[in-house]
């Protein structure tokens, strides 16, 4: 991580109040992303990846409540910021690409106008100037015949093109941080590769930090420098990509890598992860939410998890981690 | 290999409406009827064979006609042209509605993409699995209950789960219900349309292993439709690559993925992210596929996006040519061969 992080999230806790009890969706989530750095949040569905992004963006569902934590963007705490401050920051400093471009775009406005809206709001351009700039943005994200495409509606475009429009909207005001929430889910692999290249190139050009949310460990490994693995609302492991694949320390990370179809040459060599996510409404949730599925559980696991070490390059939240080759983890002595 | 089902020259064309408005309506009505309209060539002259006990993968990007091909093959829609032979019988001429009551309906069954959406939400798991048995096998009463329970057990569903509705089941359990429903009538061919697309990796592994075990136990053939190439590579013996309604490459899965001969397959394979490889091979497709509405029959469908294409591709459509066990439709396939193979 570089000296001045673009965003640093510290001890974020989020609860959802539901009819059947309080869901503790995030607990003590901490991570940082440096300027110009690309990191990935990885986990299965229900692990809290998207909730983390929504909490940082201040667009949580009304049932959700942030009970603790800070998200520092420079000097501004996004959690404590007023709605007016947030509205200024959103779009200009942080932008988000959503999972499904077809539902995230406004279906009854031409795409050029949707890009222009951002420019009018944040770059204080006139409507006429903004529309011209919007056409340039469309060209920059690789849409052929941008002047004509600017006048079309989302339903007239393919999924890949809609995602390009989303990227153009997100990057229109040149933000310093981009959150991409599963930007290529539902797209073909060929389109996925092109879109991911595009995000990567633009991020490099603009010196933008990128938080990339995905369930695809292989894709994350290819695109991100550092990977943050989440499970049931906890950050279980943080490590540089190469280190994580070569040397996973958390039992869950190990199982996740073993379950991903590329590491094995035949189907029987793939391992499934036993059990399922714990019910996050339970009052008696164990401190380690993986412990009930974990083959390496010891009596130590009933104690509160070891504190996160923000300075460690490879950080694992486990009392009995997999034996690694390097002594970077904070709790090698606990095992 | 003995062919279980043989598909020859299968085509499915959809009339393209000609747009909204009075003039288009007039043309549809009077000027020659639907035949005069432009046609979307969803599946264009496709031939292949699925052997007994074989697992065939079908890959291609969205809009390439995978689903139309599968729907034509399972006789859910009528075909425009071509033949589908299942053993001694020719099925392509039978209307889709007639086939629903046919004695061979049970021999071709399908597992749909998201069991949460393809299972009737007002049916319990039991009712969902029992439905095809009632209709196609005329099971009733005790025999029905016993058969449902045995097939559920085979798919790893416990008896108490059978009284639940789809929304009370987890993603993996729903996928099992979808599979149990399809194999209940003991089909010869099971068509799987992205059965694991909605699942997490940890659950996906279990479902894929279940499918492999069922195939071994029941001796079914699979047609496995997916856009996830790493899953296709694991499960399939042979793979068909489709692009804009045509099969552009086919062959043993391991060979096709190790040495793709068609430029489209090469781009497809290069685009798959790999765990232990930091930089993917930089082979990217530019632009969008050409329009499937009345495409010029003398232009290669891939022309325009193909990194290799030249003027030859603009004047003659490459035919499928054999290279050992593989078939490729590209003028330049020889250039990509790892070593010379006599054709």
* N-end to C-end Cα span of chain A: 27 Å
- Provide the gyration radius of chain B in Å: 22 Å
Largest sheet: spatial strand order of chain A: 6-7-8-3-9-10-11
Helix content of chain A: 25-40%
Low-confidence region ranges of chain A: 326-335
How are strands sequenced across the largest beta sheet of chain B?
A: 6-7-8-3-9-10-12-11
Assembly state = heterodimer
Helix content of chain B: 25-40%
Estimate the mean pLDDT confidence of chain A.
Answer: 87
Describe the main β-sheet of chain A briefly: 7 strands, mixed
Strand count, sense and barrel status of the largest sheet of chain B are: 8 strands, mixed
Tell me about this structure.
Chain A has helices at 49-57, 83-89, 101-104, 111-122, 127-140, 146-149, 159-171, 189-206, 217-223, 241-246, 251-259; strands at residues 5-18, 21-34, 38-42, 64-73, 76-77, 94-97, 177-181, 209-214, 226-231, 234-240, 315-316. Chain A is of the alpha/beta class and 335 residues long. In chain A, the strands form 2 sheets. Chain A has a 7-stranded mixed beta sheet with strand order 6-7-8-3-9-10-11, sandwiched between helices. Chain A has a 4-stranded antiparallel beta sheet with strand order 2-1-4-5, covered by helices on one side. In chain A, a hairpin with a 2-residue loop joins strand 4 and strand 5. In chain A, helix 4 packs across helix 5, helix 5 (127-140) crosses helix 7 (159-171) and helix 7 (159-171) runs parallel beside helix 8. The longest helix of chain A is centred in the middle third of the chain and has 18 residues, at 189-206. Chain A is globular and about 65 Å long. The two termini of chain A are 27 Å apart. The model of chain A is unreliable at 326-335 (pLDDT under 50). Chain B is an alpha/beta fold. Helices cover 33% and strands 21% of the residues of chain B. Chain B has 13 helices and 12 strands. Chain B has helices at 22-29, 66-73, 96-99, 115-118, 125-137, 141-154, 171-183, 201-218, 229-235, 253-258, 263-271, 311-315, 333-336, and strands spanning 3-15, 39-51, 55-59, 81-86, 89-90, 108-111, 189-193, 221-225, 238-243, 246-252, 321-323, 326-328. In chain B, strands 6-7-8-3-9-10-12-11 form an 8-stranded mixed beta sheet, with helices on both faces. Chain B has a 4-stranded antiparallel beta sheet with strand order 2-1-4-5, covered by helices on one side. In chain B, helix 8 (201-218) links the parallel strand 7 (189-193) and strand 8. In chain B, helix 5 (125-137) packs across helix 6 (141-154). The longest helix of chain B has 18 residues, at 201-218. Chain B is globular, with a radius of gyration of 22 Å. The mean pLDDT of chain B is 87. The A-B interface holds A 44-45, 144, 158-161, 188-194, 197, 215-219, 221-223, 241-242, 245, 255-257, 259-264, 266-268, 270-273, 276 and B 61-63, 170, 200-206, 208-209, 212, 227-231, 233-235, 267-268, 270-280, 284-288.
């Amino acid at each position: 991580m570089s000296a001045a992080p673009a965003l640093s999230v510290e001890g974020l806790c989020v609860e959802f109040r539901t009819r059947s009890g309080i869901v503790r969706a995030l607990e003590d989530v901490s991570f940082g992303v440096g300027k110009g750095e690309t990191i990935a949040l990885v986990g299965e569905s229900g692990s809290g990846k998207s909730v983390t992004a929504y909490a940082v963006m201040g667009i949580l569902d009304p049932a959700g409540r942030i009970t603790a934590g800070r998200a520092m963007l420079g000097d501004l705490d996004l959690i404590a910021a007023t709605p007016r401050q947030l509205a200024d920051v959103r779009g200009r400093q942080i932008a988000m690409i959503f999972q499904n471009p077809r539902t995230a775009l406004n279906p009854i406005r031409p795409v050029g106008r949707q890009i222009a809206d951002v420019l009018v709001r944040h770059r204080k351009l006139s409507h006429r100037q903004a529309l011209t700039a919007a056409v340039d943005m469309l060209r920059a994200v690789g849409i052929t015949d941008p002047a004509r495409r600017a006048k079309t509606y989302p339903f007239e475009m393919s999924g890949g093109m809609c995602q390009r429009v989303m990227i153009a909207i997100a990057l229109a005001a040149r933000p310093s941080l981009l959150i991409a929430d599963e930007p290529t889910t539902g797209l073909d692999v060929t389109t996925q590769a092109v879109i991911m290249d595009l995000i990567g190139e633009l991020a490099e050009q603009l010196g933008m930090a990128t938080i990339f949310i995905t369930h695809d460990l292989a894709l994350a490994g290819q695109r991100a420098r550092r990977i943050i693995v989440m499970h049931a609302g906890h950050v279980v492991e943080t490590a540089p990509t190469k280190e994580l694949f070569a040397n996973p320390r958390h039992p869950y990370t190990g199982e996740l890598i073993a379950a991903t179809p590329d590491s094995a040459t035949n189907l029987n060599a793939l391992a499934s992860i036993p059990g399922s996510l714990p019910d996050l409404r339970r009052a008696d949730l164990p401190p380690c939410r993986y412990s009930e599925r974990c083959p390496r559980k010891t009596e130590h696991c009933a104690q509160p998890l070891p504190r996160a070490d923000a300075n460690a390059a490879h950080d694992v939240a486990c009392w009995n981690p997999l034996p690694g080759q390097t002594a970077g983890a904070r709790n090698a002595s606990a095992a | 290999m003995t062919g279980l089902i043989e598909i020859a020259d299968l085509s499915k064309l959809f009339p393209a409406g000609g747009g909204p408005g009075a003039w288009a309506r007039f043309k549809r009505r009077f000027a020659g009827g639907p035949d005069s309209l432009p046609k979307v060539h969803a599946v264009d002259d496709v031939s292949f064979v699925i052997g007994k006990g074989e697992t065939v993968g079908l890959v291609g990007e969205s809009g390439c006609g995978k689903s139309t091909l599968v729907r034509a093959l399972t006789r859910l829609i009528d075909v425009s042209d071509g033949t589908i032979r299942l053993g001694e019988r020719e099925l392509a001429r039978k209307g889709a509605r007639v086939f629903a009551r046919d004695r061979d309906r049970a021999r071709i069954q399908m597992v749909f993409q998201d069991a949460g959406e393809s299972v009737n939400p007002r049916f319990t798991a039991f009712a969902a699995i029992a439905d095809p048995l009632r209709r196609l096998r005329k099971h009733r009463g005790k025999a029905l209950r016993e058969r449902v329970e045995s097939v559920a057990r085979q798919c790893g569903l416990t008896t108490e789960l059978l009284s639940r509705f789809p929304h009370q089941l987890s993603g993996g359990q729903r996928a099992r219900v979808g599979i149990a429903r399809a194999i209940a009538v003991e089909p010869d061919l099971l068509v799987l349309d992205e059965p694991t697309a909605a699942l997490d990796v940890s659950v996906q592994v279990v479902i894929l292993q279940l499918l492999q075990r069922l195939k071994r136990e029941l001796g079914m053939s699979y047609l496995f439709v997916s856009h996830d190439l790493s899953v296709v590579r694991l499960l399939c013996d042979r793979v068909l690559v489709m692009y804009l309604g045509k099969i552009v490459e086919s062959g043993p899965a391991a060979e096709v993925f190790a040495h793709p001969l068609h430029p489209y397959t090469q781009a497809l394979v290069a685009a798959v992210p790999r765990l232990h490889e930091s930089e993917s091979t930089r082979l990217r497709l530019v632009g969008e596929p050409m329009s499937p509405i009345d495409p010029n029959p003398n232009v290669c469908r891939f022309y325009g996006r193909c990194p290799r294409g030249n003027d030859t591709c603009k004047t003659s459509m490459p035919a499928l040519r054999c290279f050992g066990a593989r078939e490729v439709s590209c003028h330049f396939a020889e250039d990509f061969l790892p070593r010379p193979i006599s054709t």
